[in-house]
Amino acid sequence: MARYGLQFGILNDQEILRLCREMNPPMLDPFLSTQKGKPSYGLGSMGYDLRLGENFLVHQPHKAAVLDPRDIEKDLFKKVVRKDYFLLQPHSQVLAETVERFNMPDDILAEVLGKSTYARLGLLVNATPAEPTWRGILTLELANLSPLPIKLYVGSGIAQVLFFRGKRPGRTYDEKESGGVYQDQTGVTLPQ
Hints:
The protein is mainly β. The chain has 2 helices and 13 strands. Strand 10 and strand 11 form a beta hairpin. The mean pLDDT is 92.
């Protein structure tokens, strides 16, 4: 895989732009080289603002069960599609997806953080790091910590991703002993 510079550490806008325009396939797709909207999405100075996709997995309220990461009961969740916005109720959570598809180089790790606009409303954005060589659409866990519903706008900025370059690890995501079970996920995905 081609190297775009020898700098280690956080990537700036110029380095992210190169990886999204010159890599085949690009590191992020679709990619916007400017910031737009409110909440914003697109390339920032030291990261990229991801957009909220239209597919959500919500807990079925009438199901009484234990959420077990080793044995997920898929019927505990219902898929919901929203074209405009999703209303996240107080003290609840939902699994969501990004619009952007990731194609991580073998020497870059991505970390996802919440955006300040939503954080100030009480939205907690959680996602695990996108490890070197991971590919797919990112699943986000969104939790409403506030006592009021929060309106989440589909196609608008939902989270910021920071990219860090290091030396290529001995084992990338698709080389891990555990199998890289989320490789090439196509949208919001339950635990495997």
